[in-house]
Amino acid sequence: QVQLAESGGGLVQPGGSLRLSCAASGSIFSIYVMAWHRQAPGNRRELVAIVTADGSTNYAESVKGRFTISRDNAKNTVYLQMNSLKPEDTAVYYCYVNGATSSRRSDYWGQGTQVTVSS
To answer: In this prediction, what percent of the chain has a pLDDT beyond 70?
Structure first.
């Protein structure tokens, strides 16, 4: 079984910064893609940023230049550094991992962490 533990959400003023972390644990032994998605009330879940096993990254247009995704393969952890936060960044942020156990390759999701940008 695989677990994803997220941390780092909270309330921040516009222009502020937050850093999200997500650590994968359990029986996973190979992690391919790691990503962050978000979902605001009344909206569909959307991809925010993605990092592949070789370190290639891609971002939603709305966060380019403000957010940075990174991963620590030794710790099976993915990070999202969020700077210059805006009220429209308010959402529940979900960690996503595509990885393999001894028996199969699957998608895994974290439970979500709330990010609120407000003065």
So the answer is: 100
Identify the H or E element spanning 100.
strand 91-100
Burial class (CB in 10 A: 0-12, 13-18, 19+), 59: middle
- For 117, the token pair is 């940008």
Q: Which two tokens stand for residue 64?
A: 């380019």
- Summarised one tens digit per residue, pLDDT across range 51-101 is 999 999 999 999 999 999 999 999 999 999 999 999 999 999 999 999 998
> Distance between CA atoms of 28 and 86, rounded to whole angstroms?
35
User: Tell me, what amino acid is at 33?
Assistant: V
Q: What is the mean pLDDT of the chain?
A: 95
HSE, side-chain direction, 13 A CA sphere, residue 12? 22
Q: What angle do CA 76, 81, 82 make, to 5 degrees?
A: 145
Rg (CA), the chain: 14
